[in-house]
Write a structure and sequence with these properties.
The structure is a homodimer of 341-residue chains.
Chain A: H1 5-12, H2 16-23, H3 31-44, H4 50-57, E1 63-68, H5 76-91, E2 96-101, H6 107-119, E3 124-127, H7 133-144, E4 149-152, E5 163-166, H8 169-184, E6 188-194, H9 200-216, E7 220-227, H10 232-245, E8 251-254, H11 259-269, E9 276-280, H12 284-291, E10 297-300, H13 303-318, E11 328-330, E12 334-336
Helix pairs in contact in A: 1-2, 1-3, 2-3, 5-13, 8-9, 10-11
Chain A binds a DNA duplex (16 and 16 nucleotides) through helix 2 and helix 4.
DNA sequence: ATGAAAGCGCTAACAT
DNA sequence: ATGTTAGCGCTTTCAT
């Protein structure tokens, strides 16, 4: 049987209340008494029982707020699944989870959404932050009043108090580059289709991809990088135009959204599937294309884990298992091909 | 606030004890009273609070036994990590975990090890079962006396009461075949190096691999399948011999152990890395070879998750969240190349 | 068959 | 500054 607060109390010759105060740095216990209690606790290797603690506090009315810009973005459905599973696991500990799902990347909208959550008495926040100074300042403010913050899926610069939970975008791009090297046997001319150069993750992917291709595949020529703003229409038009001018293209790397349109353009142009295609993440369309052999591989980032870990990280903080700080919790980078679904 | 047993008691006009008895099918509550309680419970959508339940029962002295044939097998270190994490998570619920690690695949040894665990009062078992009738019978016996069983990493035939937690070996082989198709561009002659045809998982991998190559790569010729018994010496010798007779080999697929030896033979023979290599799982050696470019890709099976999920599955059973039955919990099949570690 | 009460380990409100 | 006590939701023992 594990050592309890009661045993420590007996050994120290004090009451359980005093032990509780001493061990939790609550006010009102004399220095020497506190020291003695802590010493005994260490000697016995005391570990507080989280189950009992939770039952007693009923989670202290903790509520974790989740704020994501996920509307219209299929990718996030798995993130939500992870959040949901974590939510159920911590429900019996008395923890609530409130989700706000937004569309687009308007700073003002995100700011008011944050305020709304705070009004709803959240005690922790998981957010896909816009990489903007005003957001940064707002988060710093929340952190100041004791609200731990997790940056979910996308990181924000200059917030060294948040824990980032998401993928390493640079490495993700490198992995795409590595696969590209394999499927092309290191020869040919390729096109990169990105989302937007203003989005940090997209930038990093392109960078990582380019680095690997340049370092390892001297016989591959990156012909061009085009941007779609994550829009399928634009992807369709721009890729189509490009193909007409460069009919002998070897491969395409889709670093972000707009791939559905881009792939459509490729299919119309290349009916014998000569052009190799590497993409990122999984949506229903993506999976269909991989299974049918149109897309050769997709580089994934464990969205379920991202949702799950984000919530659990905040839970661990609130329940005193581990504190949220400036660390990066990178999810693994997976490779999906036709056969490993 | 969630609905509690107390509320139900008040509404039903009985005591909390009676509600507890009724809801948990304990003896000593009149039929009509029981029905009424259950009806009210359903109407309110009552969900027992697991935290409170755990505190009250202190885990009922549950102890999960783990029996794995992992000695001398690097692969399992990640499985153990997963077990350890799960063990810590359930410790505060009053659950113990006892691990027995064995070497080799002797049926009698495994039987006595099982008995030893039972003598140690385990109330659940996670095991890497030898695919043998006597083991099967023993497990059926345990199941009979109420010990839930999880087959961990390797499945056993004819035990429809166990939950299997591990990878889909056939799909794993298919994935290797798919990657092989990519890296060879569907042309060449390849060698399969397996462990033992007596081991179900190895058989399935070879099958899956062969199927994909035959169906999708008519220009690839599988020259031969050799067995190493998971032994590096044998791998070194046999692969070396083979290469001397077949100097123009294109690629090798290592479906199981013995790869370190086999790779060594290839390196001695092929110093410009013309021969493509696909392997399975990750060990320190494997990672080194992938990072240095000797091995092009390795097909993985989430060993950490296997350990973690096995324990959590048994925990869920013992705590009444979900019952162990004949289902298969397949872990995902990952692909590792130089860049996605 | 059912109720009453104690207790799991901890916290927090109330005394002193 | 410290002790006492009630209580979190549930199980279990002991009465009745």
């Amino acid at each position: 049987m594990a050592v309890t607060i009661k045993q420590i109390a007996t050994l120290a010759g004090v009451s359980r209340g005093t032990v509780d105060r001493a061990l939790n740095n609550r006010a009102g216990v004399k220095g020497e008494v506190k020291e003695k209690i802590i010493r005994i606790s260490n000697e016995l290797g005391y570990k507080p029982n989280l189950v009992a603690k939770s039952l007693a506090t009923r989670g202290n009315n903790h509520k974790i707020g989740v704020l994501v810009n996920a509307k219209g973005n299929d990718f996030f459905s798995e993130v939500f699944r992870g959040i949901e599973v974590a939510k159920n696991e911590i429900a019996d500990f008395g923890f609530k989870v409130q989700i706000e799902n937004m569309q687009g990347f308007d700073v003002d909208e995100q700011l008011t959404a944050i305020d709304r959550l705070v009004k709803n008495d959240i005690t922790a926040l998981a957010i896909t932050p816009i990489n903007d100074t005003r957001i940064k300042n707002k988060l710093a403010e929340l952190n100041e009043i004791g609200i731990p913050i997790v940056a979910l899926n996308t990181d924000i610069e200059g917030c060294d108090f948040t824990t980032y939970v998401g993928c390493d975008y640079y490495k993700s791009g490198q992995t795409a580059g590595g696969i590209m090297g394999l499927v092309t046997k290191g020869v040919g001319s390729i096109l990169i289709v990105s989302g937007s150069n203003r989005i940090l993750g997209h930038q990093l992917r392109v960078k990582g991809f380019t680095q690997v291709i340049q370092d390892e595949c001297p016989n591959i020529n990156i012909v061009s990088i085009i941007e779609t703003n994550d829009n399928n229409e634009i992807g369709y038009i721009k890729v189509g135009q490009f193909l007409r001018k460069n009919p002998d293209l070897t491969a395409v790397y889709f670093a972000a959204g707009g791939a559905v349109g881009g792939v459509k353009a490729i299919m119309e142009h290349d009916n014998i599937h000569k052009i190799k295609i590497i993409a990122n993440d999984l949506t229903d369309d993506r999976i269909k294309h991989i299974k049918s052999g149109i897309i050769d591989a997709s580089i994934c980032q464990q969205p379920f884990q991202q949702g799950y870990i984000a919530i659990k990280t905040l839970f661990d903080h609130l329940i005193d298992i581990a504190k949220v700080d400036g660390q990066k919790k990178f999810t693994q980078i997976g490779i999906k091909i036709k056969y490993n679904f």
